[in-house]
């Protein structure tokens, strides 16, 4: 009989850890954008499938060498594209342990530790955000699946009020559910609603102001125009401007018409922990909503992936998500079974990293992280706004900065490309009010004022170069 395989010193895991250590050590100074694109990396990885086994050490070394040029340094302190945080050390370590432990986090009976970590982290998050202590929490892959989870609960409750069991009878023949969304909503809202059977053409789009905030009176008129089950999706932190819907008004108007209010707060919900009264005021009334979705891999600085769905109506949440079978043991009275609160059964144990990040930062650390990032965003806006021909398009209330160069699409697009290819910083482009704009988001725990100043210098140099190309 062949000897049983076993883990030994000097294994592939140790070699991988050495590569990880090297990558992290070089992260602050490496070019922020990937050095090579998809085609080159694909060609390098695309070898014939081996007929036999390959030495794990060889695979790890060759994979690290092949993939490294195609890695965007999303953890860099000068990564300002999209809304992506870094990874705090405790969360990274916990994630590495979670991979090694290889727990299926679906059941408390299957992994008591994974389920308990999720439950404790969920309680901490509700406390930090000022949300109802009785609300239920599900840990998902990201905000999109958190939307699916929370809006699934909304769909259940909205139809149950009209005598319809959507989990048993589906949507065919059900009372029509009116869904109200802002004109500046995030695309993940639409994707989640499609997955739940609400076609995009059936959404009622509510007018927004110049910053992307839903107009409360426009919502009132839209709700009054019909009857029946209704769901309203509000937004805490517009992806371009960082603007917040007027949560207290939105919730009051919606509840007057019997509508469920769901809040897309992928990054904006964390304004609740700010030391700034002005920033905390942005989320005033948010506790009056019925459900909320946020991210772990943005301001909490967890590695991908982690989303959080919070639902005030625990019974609706469980009814929409829970599934059982004869082989699945029911949870004990005091147990948290994660499969009851998310669309997934078999899944990785994200709760360990979430627990570690929250415990590592603590309330004071999280407050400092949020306020420091907002201060860096303000510094970016002030410095860029002082450059000739650069217009800051938004009121920088949080961590988002939106700029346009020379009021010209081609010049703005050229600057974005030059900054990214230059490698000193990474920014992303967008279209705002039909005009090309540069978007910068600050949510990395390692970013300093020096990093902000380096990014501004890179952007200033790119502007000079772009003008020469576009207008020379």
UniProtKB/TrEMBL annotation:
Residues recorded as bearing N6-(pyridoxal phosphate)lysine in the entry: 298
Cofactor(s) this protein requires: pyridoxal 5'-phosphate
UniProt-listed GO biological process terms: carboxylic acid metabolic process
Record flagged with keyword Lyase: yes
Keywords: Decarboxylase, Lyase, Pyridoxal phosphate
UniProt GO MF annotations: aromatic-L-amino-acid decarboxylase activity; pyridoxal phosphate binding
Coiled coil, from the record: none
Matches recorded under SUPFAM superfamilies: PLP-dependent transferases (SSF53383)
Pfam families per UniProt: Pyridoxal_deC
PANTHER family reported in the protein's UniProt record: GROUP II PYRIDOXAL-5-PHOSPHATE DECARBOXYLASE, MIP05841P
Family to which the UniProt record says this protein belongs: Belongs to the group II decarboxylase family.
Protein name: Aromatic-L-amino-acid decarboxylase
Lineage start: Bacteria, Bacillati, Actinomycetota, Actinomycetes, Frankiales
């Amino acid at each position: 009989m062949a000897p049983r395989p076993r883990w030994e010193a000097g294994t592939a895991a140790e070699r991988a850890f050495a590569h990880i250590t090297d990558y992290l050590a070089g992260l602050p100074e490496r070019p922020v954008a990937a050095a090579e694109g998809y085609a080159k990396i694909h060609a390098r990885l695309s070898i014939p499938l081996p007929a036999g086994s390959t030495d794990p050490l060889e695979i790890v070394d060759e994979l690290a060498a092949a993939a490294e040029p195609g890695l965007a340094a999303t953890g860099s302190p000068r990564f300002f594209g999209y809304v992506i945080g870094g990874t705090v050390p405790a969360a990274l370590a916990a994630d590495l342990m979670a991979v090694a432990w290889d727990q299926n986090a679906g059941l408390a009976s299957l992994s008591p530790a994974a389920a308990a970590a999720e439950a404790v982290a969920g309680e901490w998050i509700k406390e930090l955000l000022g949300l109802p202590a009785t609300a239920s929490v599900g840990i998902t892959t990201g905000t999109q699946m958190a939307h699916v989870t929370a809006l699934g609960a909304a769909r259940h409750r909205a139809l149950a009020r009209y005598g319809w069991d959507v989990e048993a009878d589906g949507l065919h023949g059900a009372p029509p559910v009116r869904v109200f969304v802002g004109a500046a909503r995030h695309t993940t809202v639409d994707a989640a609603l499609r997955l739940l059977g609400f076609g995009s053409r059936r959404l009622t789009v509510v007018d927004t102001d110049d910053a992307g905030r839903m107009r409360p009176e426009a919502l009132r008129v839209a709700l009054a125009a019909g009857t029946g089950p209704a769901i309203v999706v509000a937004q805490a932190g517009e992806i371009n401007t960082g603007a917040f819907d007027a949560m207290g008004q939105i919730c009051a108007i919606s509840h007057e018409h019997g509508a469920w209010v769901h809040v897309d707060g992928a990054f904006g919900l964390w304004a609740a922990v700010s030391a700034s009264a002005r920033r905390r005021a942005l989320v005033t009334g948010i506790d009056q909503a019925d459900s909320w979705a946020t991210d772990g891999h943005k301001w909490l600085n967890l590695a991908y992936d982690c989303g959080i769905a919070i639902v005030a109506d625990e019974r609706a949440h469980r009814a929409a998500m829970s599934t059982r079978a004869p082989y699945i043991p029911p949870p004990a009275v005091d147990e948290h079974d994660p499969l009851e609160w998310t669309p997934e059964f078999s899944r990785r144990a994200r709760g360990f990293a979430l627990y570690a990040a929250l415990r590592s930062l603590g309330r004071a650390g999280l407050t400092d992280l949020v306020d420091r990032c907002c201060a860096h965003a303000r510094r970016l806006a002030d410095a860029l706004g002082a450059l000739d021909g650069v217009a800051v398009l938004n009121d920088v209330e949080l961590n988002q900065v939106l700029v346009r160069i020379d009021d010209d699409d081609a010049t703005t697009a050229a600057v974005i490309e030059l900054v990214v290819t230059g490698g000193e910083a990474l920014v992303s482009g967008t279209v705002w009010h039909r005009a090309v704009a540069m978007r910068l988001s600050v949510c990395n725990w390692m970013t300093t004022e020096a990093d902000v100043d380096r990014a501004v210098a890179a952007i200033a140099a790119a502007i000079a170069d772009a003008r020469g190309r576009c207008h020379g």
